[in-house]
Structure formats: structure tokens, C-alpha cells
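Q: C-alpha cells for this one, please.
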Amino acid sequence: MAVQGKEPVSAGAVLGWLALSALAPGAAHLRAGRRTAGLILLSCYFAGLLALLALVLTTDNLLGSLTQDSWLTAIVVGAAALGVAWFAVIVHSFVVLRPGRLPQNGQILAGTLAGLLAVAVVVPFGLVAQYVWTSQQTLGDIFTGPEPAEPAVPAGQEPPQDPWAGRERVNILLLGGDADDNRTGVRTDSMNVASIDVKSGNTVLVSLPRNLENVRFRPGTPMAQRFPGGFRLPPDPGGGRSDLLNSVWEYADAHPEIFGGRRQQGPQVLMDTIGYTLDLKIDWYALVNMWGFARLIDAIGGITLTVEQDVVFGKYNEGLVKAGTRKLKGADAMWYARSRTYSDDYTRMRRQRCVLGALLGQADPATVLARFNRIALAAKELIRTDIPRSMLTNLVPLALRVKNAKVTSLQFVPPLIRTGYPDWDKIRRLTAKAVRDSAAATSAVAASATPSATPSASPSATDGSSPRKSGKPSTQPSAPPTKGLTEGCGAG
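A: Here is the predicted structure, written as C-alpha cells:
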């Protein structure tokens, strides 16, 4: 224990005790004989550490809670206050060590290094405050969907504890759009439904092709009344078609008169249409601007992919993504995923799945922290969604489970289906079986105890009005053609 009046008399000793005080506030005060001040500082320090440990250990769903505004604001304020306090402690510790007793050269050296140390201890708190503030602003800009209505709870009863209201799966429509400054409206060229088991995170990624024809709409909806025989329009002047699945959003947005004058109905119409096609209840959607996605890939420093063969792109075939395994920048990764030159939609769907798998596997926490500001800026320009902010509390831990869970893929491409004459019943059967198999993979015991682990029921499952089937009937296969998310990536 320190003895009054035994202050250090060398610059090295002053700086050593000062550095110790940066890690354990009060150490320099005890060394200088300021017992009361030193013990108070050390007591506050250890009490704070214990309180933080207790908070971490006793808070259920800590990561999910960190998406709430109240928590984020508290962290920003707390980090700023602690930064100022730590700076003050270093300065006062330097003063009580009486550097004036040092030789002039020692005073200059100790003073300079003490000033640098005082600034250095503030930097981590400043970074935490800045990162959290950026996170708060980014979340507020992206997640603007309406909050769900609180269920009525009878007087004297506790509100339900299950955030999923008894649902076994959550179904999120993931869209890749090609919105551009030179194009009116949004065409969704990549459409995938992630059906996620809320307990295990096991996920089925169901992919629908952009060129699916004669799309059927749920009976009784405005689009079904406009197109009772399926989505069909006259050919474009150039011979192309604007009545494929990827045009549903754009068409609905362009014709508000169908919906009684209500505008921006595209997202809801597409969610309902795809949900009806697959017989899944789609909970939310997330639209990713494909070129914003390229900026996100650049923000994490690129992704490593095996390009199985040269991919040509560009209006005049002037671009080339060379074959081989290497790290791709965002633009090259997007051209690899999107190009149809010397290829087709179905090969492109596979390449898109490979890019998603690479991003999921390579966006590790260390990379995200190191490039946080760039990622946040890219995310704000990238994502449009109707997921309510409050649901992030539950979706964040679910997303972490998905990262370490079994993710399978079901792609409705030829020869499995014919895009011109889709077998709607076959699509629904295969989707249902893929989801059942995903649920069974969670636990054989749970699957036998809950044999009805099927897709979330949609009205079409009970009203007897399934999508009209065209093409030849097909027998139900023994197993759906599912595969791992990155299975086949890098193969010829």
C-alpha cells in the first residue's frame, strides 16, 4: 500500500502509474497518498464493471435489445459521459503525481505523453458513441414499417411471452430490384422467400424465376378481378413482355386506379401474389437495390468467389469477369450474379445464390466492425423494407441462428417447372415438403411430436381456391430438389 509523500520522482515512474490509472482509475491517487480519492475511484470502477456484467448476464436477448432506441440512446450518452470522466481522471492523476518535481526535460516528456494518453483513453468511448449513433440513425432510416397492433389482453392477465405469437416459421420475401435513375418503377429480377424456423434458424430459400408467366392472383383481390385468367398483357412494341412475375410490383404501382386510387401498392401486391403462389403467408419483404448491393460488397472489402467460367457482360459484351477463385469487388460480383450474356435466367439464379452464400459466410463480426461506417452508409442506400423497427428485437437473434443453421435452397427453374405453363399445384407441394423437411431437420423428436409443422397457413389453404393449374399434372416426388445454399457454387 502507498505511503504518504512517496511520490515518484522519475518520468518513467510518473508515466507508469499514469498508464495503470488508465486501466484502474485511482491507482495513481493511492500511490500519491490520496487514499480516500483512490479508494472511491477504484470502488466506482469495480462497481461499474460488476453492474455491466450483471446487465449482460441477466438481460434476455441482449443483442435484440440493442436495436431499441432507448438502449442506443443510453449507450451514446453513457459512452460520452465515461469518455469525459476518464479524461478527467487521467488529468487529475497526472496532477497528484506532482510532475513539477521532475527535471525540465522530464516534465516536457511526461507532460506530452500524459496528454497523448488522456486523448487516447477518450478514443474508444468516442468510437462507441459514434458507431451506436450511426446505427441508430441507420436503423431509423431503413425500418420505417408500421408497428403491429398490440393484441388485446384481458384484465388481470399477463401479455403473451412468445414474440412470434405461436408461429413456428417466419417467411420473409427477399427481393433484388433493378431500380435506376434512368428507369421508371421497380422490376424485381431476384425473388426469394426465406422460410425460417424461429427456434432453430433452419431456413429454406425458395427462389422463383423472374420470367414466370400467367401469374395467378388471390381470388377476390383487385388484381385477380383485373386478370381473372392470369397476368397477361399484349407484347411490348419490341417483342418483349411486361407481364412476367418481375413486373407485378411495377404494374401495380403504375395503376393505382385498380386499387381505388391508392398508390404504391406494388410491395403488398407482390407479397400477396408470391405468398399465394407458394401457399405461404409472407410476413414482410426486404428489397435490395442490386447496385446498392455492390456498394455493400465493396464496404466489406469484397467477397471471395470461384467463378466457374468467364462471365461476359455489358451492352457490347465489353465486360468480363474472368474464371478463377479470387476476391471480387462489388461491381464484378454483381455482374457475375446478374449477367445473362451467353447464359440464361436459371444459371443467373444459381450465381445469385452463390453471391448470397459468400456474403453470408464472409461478413464476419471483425470485418463489420472494422468497416462499420461504410457498411452503414451502404445499407441506407441499399434496403427498403416494411419490417417494423420493434421486430428487430426478435429478428436479430433469429438472424444469428440462421448464420449457424442449415440453409437449403429450392429453385423453381426448368426442368422442374415450365415457366410459360407453370404447374401451380406442383410448386405448392414442393414448397410444403421443403419446409416440412427443414422443420424435421431441427429435431426428429420435435417433428414426430408436431407432425403439422407445415408452412404458415394462408387463406388459400382453406378457402378451396388454389391457383389454377396449367400444364400436365405431376405426381408428388419423394423428396423436393432442395440443396445447400452454396452447393454447386464454383462448379461448371
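A few notes: Residues 410 and 482 are 5 Å apart (CA to CA). The first helix runs from residue 11 to 23.
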